[in-house]
Each structure stands twice: as structure tokens, then as C-alpha cells.
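Record format v2
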Amino acid sequence: MKCESCHELEATIHLTQVIDGVVKKLNLCQDCAQENGIDLNSPISITDVLLGLGAQVQSTSPSSTEFDLSCSRCQMTRTEFKKRARLGCPECYNAFMGELSALTKAMHHSGQHVGKIPARQGNEARITAQVVSLQKEIENAIAREQYEMAANLRDKIKALRESVQAVENGENHDA
Amino acid sequence: MTLDDMVRRHGSWLEAGINEGPVISSRIRLARNIEQYSFPGWASEEEKRMIWKCASEIFQSMDSPYISWGMGETPALDKEILFERHLISQDLALKEEGCGVFVSPDERLSTMVNEEDHIRIQSLQPGLNLTAAWHVADAVDDKLESELTYAFSPKLGYLTACPSNVGTGMRASVMLHLPGLVLMEEMDPVINGISKIGLAVRGMWGEGTEAAGNMFQVSNQITLGRREDEIIAHLEQIVLELIEHENNARIRLMNDRALVVEDHVARAFGTLSHARMITSGEALNLLSTLRLGLDLDMIDQFSRRVIDMLFIAIQPAHLQKLENKELEPEERDVVRAEMLRDVMENVTEDETLE
């Protein structure tokens, strides 16, 4: 079997990983495996491998000379991100939001954080979290046909959003 | 405390714990980054040094003592030992200046700096106890957070170098010893089933049913859109089911092939007690059989702790540290066999390595 990356050498490394029920097999030669940073002694994530491989094909194709989106803060380019499968800095999440939101959705089946929030974060994060959990409660209430409760919860969300608005306006006023 | 002291004892996370038969340990890892810097893989050397310095100051100011190893000045063999003891990753071991680790003396807590993320807090507990591991990691996280501004977005949570860790930045995992499922050839369906529900199963040493020592690690893959306690509860519930499967497999194994199992256990003890050369792969598998024999009350001269400690002590860097010199693989096989003979012989009198 030929290597799936260079299509030249014999594939000697065969990887199998199952993520969310999807079995993925990857056959690589020693060189391409090493180039993609596959350490046979440590657990690997096929996400890295796939992202890495995709970039390799892309970077050798003529299209890579076309406009390449980059992060305004750390200058990482989209090509570089795909090659490394790692972002450059926190700001990259805004710069590459397009592909990232699809990628995180595919990985986590969600696009909204609901866990711990650093104490230093402003009210926005905490209120977002509250709204998200109230929305979940509404869904549950509707599923149980408890419409009155759902309406109450909806009012709560409305009040929360209004309080955010008020704070924001207040801040603008101060500025 | 130095590494020389450490290799002669076991980390306290190997103490007896809840559900200690099939479960070895529980681990929580939190990935965190500092808002103002690029992620370690993209940061300048200067930035990484500043982060390391900053982390050092915070850890020095903490009430409890920590031992630190900077990767720039730590010898390769010592890095390997930290890796074999699960205190650092292979990735960190390959790094140089500006990267390192802070370890609590009981080895239950280690914080890597400038691995894939600026900060990776790892908390280990014996047995099945993810909640306790989470509380410890959470507390260290709070302390760090009081000094640092983390990269965080209300939508995506903690921002990490790899998008697969965003959200909670938390990876919860449980290390399990599952010889019953492997011997009954039921491990593949179990691995398939578990990966369908957002969890991953990996061999500790090797993949799938080839995993040496029948040691597996089960962990969450999804980090975004679920609270930490939800992730932990889900994983623990699945682990409890796995333990039940394992125990059932052992019952069936004993019903069908009790004599064969007993023979395997006795032979494992025989080989470990008398071999003159033994590779780590063979040793891991024999120790696994011995551990099974212990769980099934076929042998009683060992404690699980002794065997669990040997799983780590027989690894290359530990052997070389104990011998105080570099050893070729064949030489290691001889030293390993010697150590195992020693432990097997003396185990009834004294259950430690010393």
C-alpha cells in the first residue's frame, strides 16, 4: 500500500482512531508520519493529522500564493494554522472564526461554553452562561409541557438581557 | 527532594483508592493560556522565558511547596523519568529553556508551563475519584487566575492552542486495568461503543488489544458545551459500567477457564521470579497477569501497590537512574530481570523496593 500523503513510498504506519463512532484509517510512510509529528509512543489525534495533511497538500498547490488570511496580532497565516493544526494566539480565534466555528462544532457538537468562568471576566460571560442555562431549562420545560414555567424563564432571560443593556449604556455614558 | 529519591518510591496517587481493582487512577487536566502572549508553539523565546519566570514567582509564593524542573537545564534522563512517572508529557520532555514543570512533593499535582498551552494543570488521584482531582485542579487554577489574566471568550470558553480543547479546557481521564475484557476478546467492541459517545479509549503502552499490560485510559473528547461536573459525571458513569463489564468478564473467565487462568498467573510469577533477561513489554504483560491473579485471590503475597509501582519502575529511565548509568537495551533487560527477581523474592518480607 502506498503512503496516502506522498503517494510514493510504501505505507508502513497504519493508524486507526474512532471518534464519535466514525472509524478513520490512515496509512503513511515513515517519513510523512515523522513530518506530521506523529510520535508512535504517544497518543495521537487524527484531527491533527488530518488538518496537517490537508495543509500540506494545499501549501504545495499553486492556490497557496493567493491571498492568505492572517491574524492581525500574531501574524499567523491561515496556511500556517492548517499546517500546524495549532493557533498562534488568543486573537487567532477571531481572525479564523470562519473555519474555527465549523471545526469546533464538528468536534464538540456545541458552540457555546457553559463551564467555569475566570473571576476576572466581566459580567458579560456570567450573564451569557446564565442565559444559556435558562434556555436549556426552557427547552426542558417545553418538553414536559410546562408552558407557564417556560414563560417565566423567558421573562427571566429578558430581564437579564435588559440588565446587560443597561450596564452597557451606562458604560458608554461614562466614556 | 530529588529525582534520586523519587525513583525509589511511588507517587502517592498509586495509593489504594476507590474501586481499586480495575481502576488505577483518575486524572484531570486543565489547559489555560495567558491573554497577552502568543501560544507556546508560536511565541518567541523571550515570551516563553517571561511566562516561565511569571509562573515560577506564582508557585514560589504558594503556601504549599513545589519542586520545579526547567527543561533547559534538566538532563535528558531526568526528563524521561518525569515522563515515565506521568508528571510531564513526551512533548514537554522535548522542549528546552522557558518550558518546565512544577510538581507537588506527593506527585498528585503537576503543572506544565509552555507545553502546547501556557499552563497545563494536571491533578491525579488514586482509584476512581475524578471529583477530588477536579477540586484540586480547580483550586490551583483559582490561585493562578488571581495573578494572571487568562485568554477567555464568553462563547468559546478558555482559549487553547488547539481548538479541540476550547471550552472547559478540561480532559478528564481514568486509567484502567482490563485483563478480563482483553482475555475474553471483548475489548474491541467496548472501544467502539465508548468512542460513539464522545469518549476515547487508548492503551497506556500501545494501541487497542495490543496494549501492553492491559492498561487503558478512558477520557472525554468533548470540552465545549458541557460543564466540568457534567463531563466528570458522564465519564464516571461510563467507567462504572466498564468496571461491571470487566468484573463480568472475569467471572465468565473463571467459570470457563479457571485452571488456565491459574496456570497463567503461576507462570507469570515463575518467570518474574526467575528470568535473567526481560523486555519491558514482556514484563508489563506478566505484571498485568499477576495483578489479575491478585484481584482473583489466586495469590496473596503482594499488594497491588507493589505491582502498580513496578509498572513504572521497570521502565528504561527508572532502571538507568537506579543503576546510576546509561544502559543499552540488552543491559536494561538484565537489570530489569534482576530487579523483578529481587522484588518477587523479598515481597513477603517487605513490600517496598528499598
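Chain B has twelve helices and ten strands.
The first helix of chain B runs from residue 3 to 6.
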